[in-house]
Structure formats: C-alpha cells, structure tokens
Design brief:
single chain, alpha+beta, Beta-lactamase Inhibitory Protein, Chain:B, domain 1, 5-stranded antiparallel β-sheet, 5 strands
C-alpha cells in the first residue's frame, strides 16, 4: 500500500511540473541574447574586432571563408549575433552580421530586426 502512495505522489508531482511548464510557455521562448541596437549604425569599415566586441559582446556564432590570404589566414571572418523570441501570439527576431578581413578590420555589416 505504501508503494502505491509513493507512485501517486510521483505522478502528482510530474503533473504539477508539466502544468507549470505549460503555464510558463505563455511567456515565450528565446534563443540567443537581445542585441543592443545603440551602436548598430555606428559600425564602419576599418573598425577593429575589439571595438565590435566592446559594443556587442561575444558573438553567438563565428564563421570563416574558405579562401586564404598569402599567410594562410582566412580572407574573411564573420561574427553573428542573433536573438529570437516567440510565444503563441507574437515574435521578435534580430540578426547582426559583421564581416572582418584577414587583418581583423570590419569590411561589412548587416542588421535585420522583425517584430510580429
């Protein structure tokens, strides 16, 4: 009889946790870190990685071009900052990509933001 009661409590707690998860789902789910947009329009060619990191922090992901310079370094490195949030009725997404040359200087950037 005691073992049956333990299972009932276990099932009850499992149900409580499932319901708590469903309730919190209404607040939405997110991926990445929200991008502070204050300096997005300040990004210019020739700026250093250090300046970009100071403004936006560590990138969510990085990538390298397959092409190499004379010293074997990738011709381009991309830093990607991304954020996404959604719940049942709305969503928000942000994406910032900054591309650096082999010297670590900005050669291009793009920013997209969407609210629905």
């Amino acid at each position: 009889m005691r073992k049956v009661m333990q299972w009932q409590y276990l099932i009850l707690w499992f149900c409580v946790l499932i319901m708590a998860g469903c309730v919190s789902g209404g607040r939405g789910r997110s991926v990445g870190r929200m991008i502070e947009t204050t300096h997005v329009n300040d990004i210019q060619e020739g700026q250093s990685k250090e300046q970009i990191r100071a403004w936006f922090g560590k990138p969510y992901a990085t990538g390298f071009s397959d092409e190499k310079d004379d010293q074997g370094r990738p011709l381009a490195e991309s830093w990607i900052y991304t954020y996404g949030w959604s719940n049942l009725s709305s969503s928000k997404s942000q994406a910032l990509t900054v591309v650096f040359d082999s010297e670590g200087k900005v050669i291009s950037s793009s920013f997209n933001e969407k609210n629905e």
